[in-house]
Diaminopimelate decarboxylase
Amino acid sequence: MIKEIKDNHLFWDGCDTVALAKEFGTPLYVFSVTEIRTQCRAIREEFLSRYENTRAAYASKAFNTLAMLRLIDEEGLSLDVVSGGELYTAIQAGFPAEQIEFNGNNKSIDELALAIDYGVGRIIVDGSQEIGLIRALCQEKQRKAKVMFRITPEVNVQTHAFISTGQKDSKFGIPLDEEILFPLIEEVIDAPEIDFYGLHFHIGSQLSDNHSHIAATEAALALVLEIHHRFDYTVKELNVGGGFGVRYTEKDIRQPYSYFLDPVMATIETFCQAHQLQRPTVVIEPGRSIVAEAGISLHTIGTIKTLPQIRTYASIDGGMTDNIRPGLYQAEYTGILANRAAEAATETVTISGKACESTDILVKDLQLPKVETGDLFATFATGAYGYSMASNYNKLAIPAVVFVEKGHAELVVERQTFQQLIQNERIPSFLMKE
Ligand SMILES: *Cc1c(COP(=O)(O)O)cnc(C)c1O
């Protein structure tokens, strides 16, 4: 168990969180390396070693740092990046180019040039304009790009609308319209600068039901067959995206990878046999499910405000700046007092952030022991989209990140300093004091 309670303290992957807070300060992100490795192993056991010709690319936007990318490489997964900055980090981490997939609905020329120069394994094209850019760059550089098309499979998904991406009216993906999609496919099959691999979809995030993955797979397979008929071309690869849900609170159901992927693979294999098609390589892109539950955030409780008969607010030394998900899409979290972890709950407290926004509430109406200023609050499952969405709003510094494994702790991102907050700022000459 990576979570333990000993001597009234919360321990995370063998490390006393109270000691971590003392050594590294708060707010602090703490990631269990053991838990990340466990998730990678689950992907290997339930998918990669169960099915031939498969690949798993960690969707690094969930948490993209040098240390994390090294760990993912060591665990033998591929990597998905969605920007020049994420790609640059991957290059700096020495991530093998062939194992990188580049997604994004508006890649710039500079980003595409960086990807082509580094020789990334796949460029996942999100629209018609991008093909023209890639071909021009490849001609100029005398290179060939390995390309997939992200399609919009037109399925609706049981998740928050703000994290649903597979419906027709979406900024993501190429629509299944005949006049848009088929001319593009014909173009890339023929283009000398392009190695066309196949199709990609990603339909949404935090899913606990496999129906939308299966429906999207069926839509993609119909397209695979149509491409075969029209162009006598067999799609080599099908990427079914990520979106596997995690457990933030007791309300959430976390399904194993096999719950999603066994029926997806059965659907693909049955279809390919029925139509005598070679089964494409199948790729998944999990982000959240690899890191979310490995990460916790530690905050120190400051001001406590009690409104009799209404609510008690306990404010922490961070908030929406290190975890914007509650404010962004009403995401729910839970947590405990890490320094009094074995004590019984006696009151209802709302944990609020210190940013100047009323939506900066981390956890509403949580049962806790009587909270005191100076207590250490631990929020669970903040590993995905916490650090990666952190901001400097109110000029709060972005917290440090620590990796812990079996009792050993190591800093992997230093806390921002005030000096770093202004290092790119300049005073124009007309405002200089002499
Ligand atoms: C965000 C994203 C993922 C990962 O989604 P999770 O819900 O974090 O698993 C995978 N593929 C693409 C293209 C994405 O944009």
